[in-house]
Amino acid sequence: MKYQLEQCIGSRIRRLSRIADGHIRSFLGDHKITENQMTILFTLHELGRVEQGKVGEVLCLERSTVSRNIKLLEKQNLLLRTTEYRPEVELTTQGLDLVKVLIPQWEKAMDVLVEQIQADGMKSLNMLESRMH
Predict the structure, then answer these.
(1) Where are the domains of the chain?
(2) What is the DSSP letter of 100?
(3) Which of 39, 74, 73 shows the shortest CA–CA distance to 58?
(4) Residues 6 or more apart from 41 whose CB is under 8 A from it?
(5) Would you write out the chain's pLDDT as a tens digit for each of its 133 residues?
(6) CATH topology for 5-132?
(7) Smallest Cα–Cα separation from 29: which of 114, 113, 98?
């Protein structure tokens, strides 16, 4: 084999993602929401009403992941989804209220993560993302 498993870039990036997600979850408290769902809510907070597919494009999420999470968020009355062929989604008042509660918690988690990886780690993340995109 040309590479060893511990050199697998995909595996290492997913591991880092799980570590970061664990830090973020520790700040989310009792909110019954996943990191993917949180980022979808944050995206809708920034973009407003958009086609559901746009959410996946912005977050680099598979269509099935976006669809599944949007259905769950809709059941929690956190967003509205139209019934059009290309559905549009937007936050409900309850969803907007939750985003306003989550943002400070997310920012606390980000403070911890940024402190851990420091400026050179942030620079490396930016470089990796630009090269792989």
Answers:
(1) 5-132
(2) H
(3) 39
(4) 33, 73, 78, 79, 91, 95, 98, 99, 102
(5) 898 888 899 999 999 999 999 989 888 878 888 889 999 999 999 999 999 999 999 999 999 999 999 999 999 999 999 998 989 999 999 999 999 999 999 999 999 999 999 999 999 999 998 998 7
(6) Arc Repressor Mutant, subunit A (1.10.10)
(7) 98
